[in-house]
Amino acid sequence: MSGQHQQRGRGRGLWRSLIFVLPLLAVWAIPVSVLTMVAPAVEEAEAERVTPVEPDTIPVGSRSSDQATSVGLSVGFGQSASVAVRASGLVTAVHLSPGKSVKQCRALIDINDVPVLAYRAKAPLFRDLAVKDKGTDVQALAQYLVACGTLDKADISNTFTSQIESAVKTLQRDVLKVKDTGEFATSYVAFIPREVKLVKTIPVTIGDEVNPGTEIISVSGPPQSVTIVDPDLGQPLDLSAPDGYVLHSGETSINIAGSIIPEDQLVEINQFISDAVAIGSLSGRAVNSDVDGEPGSGSATEFYSGATITTHSVTETGAVPSSAIYASPSGVTCVFVSSSGSDYEPVAISELQMIKGELGSIGVPADLIGKSVVRDPTALPAEVATSCG
């Protein structure tokens, strides 16, 4: 019994010792464990405070373009004329449109439902003509009737013969739809100089009242010069693509080499302009004119809008957001190319170009495509940013 009592006594003493020691151990162990956990976090925070934050980078994108550009056409016409009528009345029909060519004997307009025919010649007819009249104007009328298909060429004469009278009656009856008296009135025709035939403007419309001397159309000869110009400034464009360009308007197009159309292409460009005006894709306005009222005595320049040019080949360019462009105090613009780590190389951009159809995108040289550039150069250290320019 005494041995058992002794063991119980020793056990109680051990527990009393542990109860006393454990609090002391806890007081020592807790700070140590806290330090073990906190110290790495403090070291990490200190490291973040010392290590600079690298700016975001983005890859330079790629865009393909045929460089479509809106342009204007400055067209110089060497000779132009104002065409007037000798009849009076109400305009009941207009048979022409801008850009069309005036043809001999064709109706220009109707006045009181009677056609006014084109009379293309060296000089106008100055009097009404009838049987027994003689003169060069009678011969000119006879030549006109041959062109209209109512007189045989063999019957041309400077005397108003019965054959010419018969031809006039046919013209009155079949073309003019008036009484066939056989007398030719100058009001039947409107004089147009031979050198000009391209309709520029038509200042009259159906319902207008006209009198002798009223201008009904303005006409010109074919273009003598055509220049591709800035649509807003009117200045010739610098077009230097080695393989040339394509000039477009609506569904019509033509190949051109540069901003100045060569002389041997003026006929072709004139047809292009006429076709585009006819379909309404190209519109023109007079820039200046020195027509003084005398037939065929003036020249004019017209500006046409509604055209675009494209290159024959598609070109590729790089693209970055505008935020990636850095403008130095000296006016130099750069992007910063990230090569490795914190190394950033400034690349000067000589000319900023907007990417068409993309608000906020800027075109950069194609050799930057695929490279990484800094998204926001203002995040770079000052010593790096100042390396631009």
Counting DSSP E segments of at least 2 residues, the number of strands comes to: 22
CATH topology of the largest domain: Muramoyl-pentapeptide Carboxypeptidase, domain 1
Shape: rod-shaped
Q: How can the largest sheet be summarized?
A: 8 strands, antiparallel
Summarize the structure in words.
The protein has 389 residues and is α+β, with helices and mostly antiparallel strands. The chain folds into 4 domains: 1-51; 84-220, Muramoyl-pentapeptide Carboxypeptidase, domain 1; 221-311, no CATH class; 315-385, no CATH class. The chain has 5 helices and 22 strands. It has helices at 2-50, 136-148, 162-176, 266-279, 382-385; strands spanning 57-59, 61-65, 69-84, 89-94, 107-111, 114-121, 189-193, 198-201, 209-210, 215-220, 223-229, 245-249, 252-256, 283-289, 298-311, 315-321, 326-327, 333-340, 343-348, 353-354, 361-364, 372-374. The strands form 5 sheets. Strands 3, 8, 10, 11, 12, 13, 14 and 15 form an 8-stranded antiparallel β-sheet that branches. The protein is rod-shaped and about 105 Å long. The model is unreliable at 291-297 (pLDDT under 50).
